[in-house]
Design goal:
One of its GO terms (molecular function) is beta-glucosidase activity. The protein is α/β, with parallel strands linked by helices. It has a single domain, classed as Glycosidases (TIM Barrel). It contains 14 helices and 14 strands. The chain has an 8-stranded parallel beta barrel, surrounded by 4 helices. A two-stranded parallel sheet has the order 6-8. A two-stranded antiparallel sheet has the order 9-10. Strand 11, helix 13 and strand 12 form a beta-alpha-beta unit. The longest helix has 26 residues. The two termini are 15 Å apart.
Length: 470
């Protein structure tokens, strides 16, 4: 007998801008992700000034899911996917972001994708805004700095909610919304000047996103009461380095900055601690009188989150820092790390599930989890990614314990990058997550041919057994 619910949503997760390609096809406009060149984040590769001549932009072709979606979804179905988490590219629907009428060819593409999923009994799980903002809105309005973005976003939501109301049940308003406080250029295209208060800009932008999310939730429920509309956050499980109370205080403060984002979307208001945090950071939010009611009436139905690694907080500022996934913390001597320095912590996933469920008592959805690694193709064409299987197996074990032993209400599990795609953080292709290998390298060379890794068959049996065969 399975320890997970019978209707548990096993699947995989991707983002439109990291795999679709076809960046300027069928009327699609330029998004901030289209202005992200190859290379590391610290090389200021993001949104310099639109598209530059002679610069390589990996996502312009991605893995060409736009023309391979039938083949790819068939492979997902072969693995037994119950759901497929993807996103809708905003600029396929509103190329500049502020048009009055949507682009019909863009809408038709997602009709085809969702129909293909439903043909195999795969539920689409759709992130409305996943790390791509119409570049026209960045240039014209300053992105989410401007309150005008709320109307543009809700118009986008109204169109896709009505168009896909009978095809999509599960939605999330923003991907990793708390990442605006970590690297605002990636989720929103916002660049912050050295003469600006970083927190004033990011928390004001976040307020506009909170209001937009709440309006979208209310709108979605009016269009289809069966919609399940969630929020989505990056969850950085953080430990105090020692039992020194000052370390514990640092740990609490680190997590408070992340809960700031989930608290508003789940509870529908800013807590007294959140308001004190704003004061301490010199932030004065510009808000409209109706915002309190909007936030209250637009609380989310569930919490989606990404979990890859854990962090350590210390009051000792001289400690060696370890980075990963836009985060920085002290190295944990009890954990191994990935090739990219991400500290691997399966038990941290169980703690994460408990922390979120105890705090909010809302259904949870693990919508990203996985191991980025360099995969080697053997002479016979096989790819033996035992390291990925081990990572996922250990995390699934802890996930099941959280449900079976701790009573956490969990909707599903969609490992990140179920098919190899472009890295959001670095633009690399060699940092692979998928069960399906795509023949493409960091320079954009390759046939784009798809092939199964060892983890493909392993995950297939995991799904078939509802997590009992690991």
């Amino acid at each position: 007998m399975s320890r997970l619910p019978e209707n548990f949503l096993w699947g995989g997760a991707v983002a439109a801008n990291q795999l679709e390609g076809a960046w300027n096809v069928d009327g699609k406009g330029i998004s901030t992700a289209d202005c992200m060149s190859a290379g590391a984040v610290d090389k200021e590769r993001i949104y310099t000034d639109g598209i530059q001549e002679g610069v390589y932009y990996p996502n312009h072709e991605g893995i060409d899911f736009y023309h391979h979606y039938q083949e790819d979804i068939a492979m997902f179905a072969e693995m037994g996917f119950k759901c497929f988490r993807t996103s809708i590219a905003w600029t396929r629907i509103f190329p500049q972001g502020d048009e009055k009428e949507p682009n019909e060819l863009g809408l038709q593409f997602y009709d085809r994708v969702f129909d293909e999923c439903l043909k195999y009994g795969i539920e689409p799980v759709v992130t409305i805004s996943h790390y791509e903002t119409p570049y026209g809105l960045v240039k014209k309005y300053g992105s989410w700095r401007s309150r005008s973005m709320i109307d543009f976003y809700t118009r986008f939501c109204e169109v896709i909610f009505n168009r896909y109301k009978d095809k999509v049940k599960y939605w999330m308003t923003f991907n990793e919304i708390n990442c605006i406080s970590l690297h605002p250029a990636i989720p929103t295209g916002i660049r912050i000047g050295t003469d600006e208060n970083f927190h004033q800009v990011t928390l004001q932008a976040a307020h506009h996103m909170f209001v937009a999310s709440a309006k979208a939730v209310k709108l979605g429920h009016a269009i289809n009461p069966d919609f399940k509309i969630g929020m989505m956050m990056l969850y950085p499980q953080t430990y105090a380095e020692t039992c020194n109370p000052l370390d514990a205080l640092k740990q609490m403060q680190a997590m408070d900055m992340q809960y700031y984002y989930s608290d508003v979307q789940v509870r529908g208001y800013y807590s007294s601690k959140a308001k004190k945090m704003q004061q301490a950071l010199g932030v004065k939010l510009a808000a409209e009188p109706e915002d309190d009611a909007i936030l209250r009436e637009g609380k989310v139905d569930y919490i989606g989150f990404s979990y890859y690694m854990s962090m350590v907080a210390s009051a000792d500022l001289n400690k060696q820092v370890s980075g990963g996934n836009m985060l920085k913390g002290i190295k944990n001597p009890y954990l191994k790390a990935s090739e990219w320095g991400w500290q691997i912590d399966p038990v941290g996933l169980r703690l994460t599930l408990n922390n979120l469920y105890d705090r909010y008592q809302l259904p949870l959805f693990i919508v990203e989890n996985g191991l980025g690694a360099i995969d080697q193709i053997e002479a016979d064409g096989s790819i033996c990614d035992d390291y990925r299987i081990e990572y996922l197996r250990e995390h699934i074990k802890e996930m099941i314990k959280a449900v079976d032993e701790d009573g956490v209400e969990l909707m599903g599990y969609t490992p990140w990058g179920c098919i190899d795609l472009i890295s959001a953080g670095t633009g690399e292709m060699k940092k692979r997550y998928g069960f399906i290998y795509v023949d493409r390298d960091d320079e954009g060379h390759g046939t784009l041919a798809r092939s199964k890794k060892k983890s493909f068959e392993w995950y297939k049996q995991v799904i078939a057994s509802n997590g009992e065969k690991l």
